[in-house]
Design a protein that fits this description.
With 85 residues, the chain is an alpha+beta fold. The protein has 3 helices and 5 strands. The protein is 44% helix and 20% strand. The strands form 2 sheets. A 3-stranded antiparallel sheet has the order 3-5-4. A two-stranded antiparallel sheet has the order 1-2. The model has no long low-confidence stretch (mean pLDDT 84).
């Protein structure tokens, strides 16, 4: 995983600090119209970091998704898929 990321969100009026896993998840969802579910994202993390424990990856992805949804950087579709608005 790369380093984290600092981003100013003008709509929220806040500066956000994204952890490396959170930034990786956001990058995976960066393609407009491209949606993934949590399992897809866990698989992508495991491809990037094959020595990581799957259970830990699932927890990190869940925390990343919660942070991104809370910051309104991604949105959940009516199905369990996620996208970058």
């Amino acid at each position: 995983m790369d380093e984290g990321w600092v981003r100013y969100d003008p709509s929220a009026g806040e500066t956000l600090l994204l952890a490396p896993v959170t930034r990786f998840v956001l990058d995976q969802l960066a393609v407009p119209g491209h949606s993934l579910n949590a399992d897809d994202l866990v698989a992508a993390v495991l491809r990037e970091e094959p020595e990581a424990a799957p259970e830990a990856c699932r927890e990190f992805v869940a925390v990343a998704l919660e942070a991104l949804l809370g910051a309104r950087l991604i949105r959940a579709q009516s199905s369990p898929r996620l996208e970058n608005p």
